[in-house]
Amino acid sequence: MSDPSVRTVVDALEPWPDTVEWRPVSGKLFWVQLIGIVTWTVVFAAGLITGWFFAEHPAWLVALGVEVLTGIWRVVVAARAVQAWGYAERDNDLLVRHGLLVRHLSIVPYARMQYVDVTAGPLERAFGLATVQLHTAAAASDARVPGLPPEEAARLRDRLTALGEDRAEGL
Amino acid sequence: MTSTGPLHPAPTGPEEPAPTGPEENAPTGPEENAPTGPEKTVTPPPYPGLPTENEALPPARPPAEAEPRQRLHPLSPLLKGAKSLVVIVAALSWQTLSQLGPLHFAMVVAALAVAVVIFSVIGWFTTGYQVVGRELRVTEGLIWRRTRAIPLDRLQSVELRRTLLAQITGLAELRLEVVGGGKTEAPLAYLTVREASALRERLLALSGRTPVVAPEESPSPADPAAPPVAAPPAEIALHQVRNENLLTSQLLTPQAFFLPIGLAWVIMQFVLEGSWTFVGIASTVTAMAGVLLQPIRRVLADWGFRVSQDRDGRLVLHYGLTETRSQVVPTRRVQTLRITWPLLWRPKRWLMLRLEIAGVSVPESGNDNSSDRLLPVGDLDTARALIATVMPGVELTAMATSPPPSRARWLHPISLRFHGAGFTPDVFVTRWGRVTREMSLVPYARLQSVRVVQGPVQRMLGLATVYADTAGGRAGIARDRDLAEAWAIADELASRSRRARAVQATPH
Description:
- The structure holds two protein chains of two kinds.
- Chain A has four helices and seven strands; from the N terminus they run βααββββαββα.
- By secondary structure, chain A is of the alpha+beta class.
- In chain B, α6 (243-251) packs across α8 (278-302) and α7 (254-273) runs antiparallel to α8 (278-302).
- Chain B has three domains: 1-72 and 127-226, no CATH class; 232-391, no CATH class; 399-508, Roll (PH-domain like), CATH 2.30.29.30.
- The interface between A and B is large, with 36 and 49 residues.
């Protein structure tokens, strides 16, 4: 089935290395995620400690330990996952890859664009980041690029809309 | 939109209908797109029938820019009210009846009926629709007014639905499917059948980009002399499902097979316990009804299934017994075709064809309310013919697929050799399933995006799954391919879909 003209490279995250220039997302995305994880960990830990004060049962401490370890593990994963995010603009489509445990690569043609979302939550804004998401008519399409500096987000948004607008109706 | 037929705006572009003012654009829609058809008539001569084209349609319409808002049929509040009244009475149930006594109960029901009818009348009074340019506007609501504008060039399919009550009263509900929004946008309930089919013809004509219209034929409801204005356009019958086959096919379902077993079990239980309480029987019957209902509903829904093609090349599907449906689908709106070979149908060599259309919500299992059938039951030859109609050049028997590498056996111990993916000139073919074999055909031109996903187990085995997403909801999925092959498939899909789009976009 494989077309002989297609170069095949056996690396899950680096397909077509000669034609594709992957752009990383900002490293500051890690700090956004770190703050999120730490906040949740602290909130849960506070709950567990409160529980321990009310009933001094060792289960609370075990839960606390598990919870902190999970938090640390999530931080490690987040640090690596940020590096796994990447996007590339080819002539006709946008490539987005992400995920460590389950790796995703999406190929979304510009012509299929329905609309582009640029969002930035309060934490992201504090770090000067934004998320660009390209929507197609298929709900399953998954082209979300987080952790972009605002000017890069704006550039990507404008480029996507410019490339998308002269195409067909997207269906 | 007026009937300024002879004004032919220059064919501005194949893509979007030029925004040159809706009133010129609308009637000339089919001609404007004529160049995209097989015949290369660039500027068709002003067709004399055009000025009268739309005058024949709505009964009284001043030749103003926008036609007045039109109401739904005066009986529709009664029909809608009857529906909700049934629900309310069912909710009141036996308990209330025994508490109130029949006289009071009747009074309560009467009061409720009056209230429901008043409510419905208000709803009817405030609901209206009008065609403005290439848009259908539907206005509704008394306190929260809502006007919804539906651009007709985005129309995916139009369905005319008639429930039993509507059939008695000669009314019909018109449902338009547009992308976005999980449910049907703007169901117009109810219109008379004639109005509804006239409106449907008009909306479909306005929806424009159906290109294969010969200029002479394009205004299908054009003939001003012909009194049956809403006469359905000439249709070429493609296939009619025999009702015996439909019955047999639904008897060959797990539910039907479980029925005798279930009955025997219930009877045995009663015999053993020796108690025939009313509650016991009633609850058993209810439980059985739930199981039994699905095949019966299928039979009722698909009764008298007819597929035909109108002269603009659109698919026209008629089916249903208690609720008849007639659905018009332009073939280029078909996102995916799915072929299913259920286990129990295999001795008969039967299969089922389903369409996926953007905007028609994907049914949950067991919910048959959506209109996605192309062929509820049929043999291979019928299916081949229908597929060739929907997707020209696609040959069901010549679908070569290759299975995943044999190390994927760890993930599919039984069904490995029934998985497969393959490229044909026009569609991406994937198939799967050991017990119920299924195949899905995704035209490259309909691809929305391509995804490659690799889970942890797959990474250990060096496998990956490729998804070919369409707007129809379900994707064509090539499961557990060799990683290098998965990349190749994804790349091939992307480039093939690009080529298919290019062909579609620039036909001349």
